[in-house]
Amino acid sequence: MAALGDFQSDFQVNLSAAKRALGIDFELKEKQLEALESLYNGNDTIVVVPTGFGKSLIFQLLPWLMQGKFKRADPMIVIIATPLNSIMHDQVQSLAKRGVSACYLDITGSSGNTYDYKR
Q1: How far apart are CA 50 and CA 3, in angstroms?
Q2: How far apart (Å, rounded) are the C-alpha atoms in residues 119 and 111?
C-alpha cells in the first residue's frame, strides 16, 4: 500500500502535468484543489461555489489528471451534465480553443455536435 506522502506526491506530479496539458500557468484555488484531490482519490464529489469561481477548470483538468494516475496513453473521458444548452456550447467551444476534443448533446438530440472517439 502506498504511503500518504507517495499519494500526495503522485497527485502533485499528475496535477502539474494536467495543468501543462491545458496551458494553465497559475495556482489553483483551495476548493479546486480539494475537489480534484477528492476525485483523484475515487470519491463522489459535489462542488458548490459561486458563479465564476472556476468549476469548469476542475472537470477540464480531470482527464489529464486521471491519465497520469492510471498511466494511460490518452486522457480519460469525462462526462458532464449541465442544465443549460448555452453552457454546454460555451464549454465545448472553450475546450476546442485549447485543442481538446469535446462534444455535447442537448435535449433535442439535434443541435449538439458529436465526436467519434477512436482509440
Answers
A1: 35
A2: 26
C-alpha angle 78-79-85 in degrees, rounded to nearest 5: 135
Q: Are residues 11 and 56 in the same domain?
A: yes
22-31 in b/e burial notation, b at 16+ Cβ within 10 A?
bebeeebeee
Counting the structural domains of the chain, the total is: 2
Residue 74 is assigned to a structural domain of this protein: no
Tell whether 38 and 60 lie within a shared domain: yes
Query: SS3 for 48?
Result: coil
Q: Which domain holds residue 65?
A: 4-69
Q: What is the pTM of this model?
A: 0.79
pLDDT tens string 19-68: 999 999 999 999 999 999 999 999 999 999 999 999 999 999 999 999 99
